[in-house]
Amino acid sequence: MDKKFISYLLRKVGKALGDYNMLSEGDKVLIGVSGGKDSLTLLDTMVLKKRFLPFSYDIFVVNVDFGFYKDESYFERLEEFFKKLSVNYYFIKGELSNSKKEINCFWCSWNRRKEIFLLAKKLNCNKVALGHTLDDVVITFLMNLFYHGEISTMPPILKMFSGEITLIRPLVYVTSQETKKYAEYKNLPVIDFECPYYNKKFRQREYLKNLLEELEKFWPNIKKNIFNSLKKVKQEYLV
After folding, report:
1. pLDDT (0 to 100) of residue 163
2. Phi, psi of 166 (to 5 degrees)
3. Burial letters for 123-139: b for 16+ Cβ neighbours within 10 Å, e otherwise?
4. Cα(172)–Cα(57) distance, rounded to whole angstroms?
5. Dihedrals φ, ψ of 60, to 5°?
6. If you write DSSP's letter for every residue of 80-135 in order, what string do you get?
7. How confident is the model over 55-98, as pLDDT tens digits?
8. Domains by residue range for the chain, with CATH
9. Which of 76, 83, 205, 236 is most buried, judged by most C-beta within 10 A?
10. 57: DSSP letter
11. Nearest-CA neighbor of 134 among 199, 216, 53, 237?
């Protein structure tokens, strides 16, 4: 059963890679790994997919730490995991408290991405992969719809810096529940950490996450249907 699930999840990743043409021969891909179940699942599956795809690509890994991890020994376990996968890895440590900006989820994410893209340019990586799942795409869509009055979300693939780097999200067909199951079965070194800058926007995202979980009890396919609706926009029926 578990092996069938692993194959099932790998097929989902492969379909996303193919549907959106995320990878090509000779790509150098930098994967951002926070230590959560999603990013670790992304890394593990991207390494496994190299065995089956008809072309080669190089994988680099980066962990950006702003001092949120309480257990310093975690980095040793993470490093062991990277070595086991035989990937080139980098650890970046920084502080958000030195910034004059208000420290919140957006500012933290912006700085984290900044460090990742700077490293990608330094390593001449043409792709950056992040572990956003189908849940993240759906929740971001609802966030923008409810709180910003616009229809938009995280795209599976996005060209940045005039095409110099392409951001890819290979887990867009995978749910958060599936990455949890995958991480548990593969015994990935997942770490839970509490954000010290928990704020209103984070609570809004948590509210929508809980709302979707409640709605799933009545409509099990609701997240998948919302995701698919973003690919079936009938513009002639919009205002």
Report:
1. 92
2. -110, 125
3. eebbbbbbbbbbbbbbb
4. 20
5. -125, 150
6. HHHHHHT-EEEEEE--STT-SS--SHHHHHHHHHHHHHHHHHHTT-SEEE----HH
7. 999 999 999 988 777 677 888 999 999 999 999 999 998 777 55
8. 2-135+154-195 (3.40.50.620)
9. 205
10. E
11. 216
d(CA 44, CA 49): 9
Find the largest Cα–Cα distance for the chain: 56
Q: Which amino acid would we find at residue 235?
A: Q
For residue 119, CA distances in Å to 23, 112, 116, 213 come to: 19, 11, 5, 37
For the question of whether the overall pTM of this predicted structure is more than 0.90, the answer is: yes
What's the rounded Cα separation, in Å, for the pair 69 and 189? 13
Q: Which tokens sit at 238? A: 């919009």
3-state DSSP call for residue 172?
Answer: coil
Residue 48 has pLDDT above 80, yes or no: yes
Residue with tokens 């097929």, as numbered in its chain: 11
Integer Cα distance of 121 and 112 in angstroms: 15
Three-state DSSP class for residue 158? strand
In 103-239, alpha helices (H): 105-122, 134-148, 176-186, 200-216, 222-229
DSSP tag of 42: H
